[in-house]
Design goal:
This protein is mainly alpha-helical. The protein has eleven helices and two strands.
């Protein structure tokens, strides 16, 4: 007997997805190498990808609806020229994620293990992404950074900063293995180390700082991708199996490219320019990894709305 699972909190997520899809129609004529593609990836995060993760984390319904409103203003911000109005429209999303980080800290404890700290880190890195989105929309120069780098930093902390640690947390909770603790630790420290390394290169500090930071981050992420692909092979249901494998392999590919780019100071690969990185690496991490993984967890936990699923199925690994 099949039953339709419909949960009103996720209706806000579905609305966000539809609006994001409609907003991308006018981008179909653009190349993946255009900055408009980067903006569409960034807008997708607050509109529906991160809210899906918040629903998995059992956040109250009211927060999902507040998230929808704030993310709509976030999207509208990118319809304005850079300036005070555009930046002001980012503030509601910034306020929400700061609140989420504060609540996560309140609910945590100093005795948390590495796995729980991974989720806490995700909630702390998310406001960093919102701050950089605010700076991007404000359009003022910050320490001489190129505007493209500012935009990419906002994207980085929404996906690598939030979705990657959350995905690591979910896997470690369901598939507890000691080595995943060290993997999660690498992700926790790797995210800020990449930002430090990029800043080091910008200020012409020793190149090994970026190489070291990217190596820790990329290797941890690539291994997580392989573990997700292996976890997918263990699933009994076809759709979660496919989604976990796709997400895992996309993460592995994206992190492999990041590793190659980080080592450009040692072994130059001319094709790996910044446009190539956000077109391939960014798309792999956002649409190739984050989307399939979070949907796969929804299906596995039987929380996916608007889809007929077998209510008697109980495929647990």
């Amino acid at each position: 007997m099949k039953t339709l699972l419909f949960r009103s909190p996720v209706l806000s997520v579905f609305i966000g997805f539809v609006i994001w899809g409609l907003s991308c129609i006018n981008l179909l004529s653009y190349s993946f190498f255009a900055l408009s593609h980067v903006q569409s990836l960034l807008i997708a995060a607050p509109l529906w990808i991160i809210p899906l993760a918040l629903f998995l984390d059992r956040k109250p319904s009211i927060l999902l609806w507040i998230s929808l409103v704030s993310s709509l203003l976030f999207m509208i911000s990118y319809q304005f020229e850079k300036g005070g109005i555009a930046a002001g429209l980012i503030i509601p999303w910034l306020g929400l994620v700061i609140y989420l980080a504060f609540r996560a800290f309140q609910q945590g404890s100093l005795s948390m293990n590495i796995i729980d700290m991974t989720k806490l880190a995700a909630y702390f890195y998310l406001p960093v992404g919102a701050i950089w989105a605010f700076v991007d929309r404000l359009g003022i120069p910050v320490l001489g950074y190129d505007p493209t780098i500012i935009l990419l930093t906002a994207v980085h902390f929404h996906y690598a900063g939030f979705m990657l640690p959350m995905a690591a947390f979910w896997l470690a909770k369901v598939y507890p293995r000691n080595y995943l603790k060290y993997l999660n630790l690498g992700i926790i420290i790797g995210i800020p180390l990449v930002a430090i390394g990029i800043s080091a290169t910008h200020f012409q500090w020793p190149s090994w700082i970026e190489v070291a930071g990217v190596t820790i981050m990329a290797c941890s992420g690539a291994l997580l991708g392989l573990f997700y692909a292996g976890f997918g092979l263990m699933q009994k249901r076809t759709l979660p199996r496919i989604l976990f494998i796709i997400g895992g392999l996309a993460l592995f590919l994206g992190m492999a490219l990041a590793l190659c780019y980080g080592w450009r100071h040692v072994f130059l690969i001319e094709v790996l320019t910044i446009p190539w990185m956000y077109a391939i690496h960014g798309t792999c991490n956002a649409l190739g990894f984050a989307v399939p993984i979070v949907i796969a967890w929804f299906i596995r936990m039987k929380k996916l709305p608007f889809i007929f699923v077998d209510a008697k199925a109980s495929e647990k690994v």
